[in-house]
Design a protein that fits this description.
mainly alpha, Cd81 Antigen, Extracellular Domain, Chain: A
Length: about 190
C-alpha cells in the first residue's frame, strides 16, 4: 500500500484558529480597559474623600514650615520654595503676614531687623522686609494658604475634566470591543 497523507490544515481550521485568537484579544483588551477604568474611579473617589483632610493638613503644615524651617540651616530648599510661593502668589505668611512674628528666623535676630522676609515685599529689594506696612508688603486676607487653595482647586478642575474625557474614551473603547466581539461571534465561517 502507498503512503496515505491527509491534509491536516483545512481552510476552516485556519479560520477558526484566527477567530479564536481574535476573540481572545478582544476579551483581554476589554478586561484591561475595564480594570484601568475601575482604578481611575477608585482614585477619583479617594481624591474626593481625602480632599478635606489634605486641605486641613496643608494649612497646618504650611504655617509650621514657614515658622520653623524658613532660613534654617539645612532647609535652603524650604526657604527658596516659600520665597517663590510668596512672590508668585503675591501673599505673605500662611494665614496673614503676622504669622512671621512666630518665625524662629525672626525671633533669633538673624533676620537683620526684618519683620517679614523680603519675598513678602511688593518690590523686592534687600532689607525691604523691615517695614511692615500695607504699601510695602502683601497683606492679603487669608495669606498664602487661600491663594494656594484657589490655585489647587482651579487645577484640580482641569485634571478632573481631562480624567472624565479619558474615562469616556475608555467606555467607548469597551463598548466597541463588545460590539466587535459580538459581530465576530455572529459571523459563521
Amino acid at each position: 500500500m502507498g503512503e496515505f497523507s491527509e491534509k491536516t490544515t483545512t481552510c476552516g481550521t485556519v479560520c477558526l484558529k484566527y477567530l479564536l485568537f481574535t476573540f481572545n484579544c478582544c476579551f483581554w483588551y476589554f478586561i484591561l480597559l475595564f480594570i484601568i477604568f475601575l482604578l481611575e474611579i477608585i482614585a477619583g473617589v479617594l481624591a474626593y474623600v481625602y480632599y478635606q483632610q489634605l486641605n486641613a493638613e496643608l494649612k497646618e503644615n504650611l504655617k509650621d514650615t514657614m515658622t520653623k524651617r524658613y532660613h534654617q540651616e539645612g532647609h535652603e530648599g524650604v526657604t527658596s520654595a516659600v520665597d517663590k510661593l510668596q512672590q508668585e502668589f503675591h501673599c505673605c505668611g500662611s494665614n496673614h503676614s503676622q504669622d512671621w512674628r512666630d518665625s524662629e528666623w525672626i525671633r533669633s535676630g538673624k533676620a537683620g531687623g526684618r519683620v517679614v522676609p523680603d519675598s513678602c515685599c511688593k518690590t523686592v529689594v534687600a532689607g525691604c522686609g523691615r517695614r511692615d506696612h500695607a504699601s510695602n508688603i502683601y497683606k492679603v486676607e487669608g495669606g498664602c494658604i487661600t491663594k494656594l487653595e484657589t490655585f489647587i482647586q482651579e487645577h484640580l478642575r482641569i485634571i478632573g475634566a481631562v480624567g472624565i474625557g479619558i474615562a469616556c474614551v475608555q467606555v467607548f473603547g469597551m463598548i466597541f470591543t463588545c460590539c466587535l466581539y459580538k459581530s465576530l461571534k455572529l459571523e459563521h465561517y
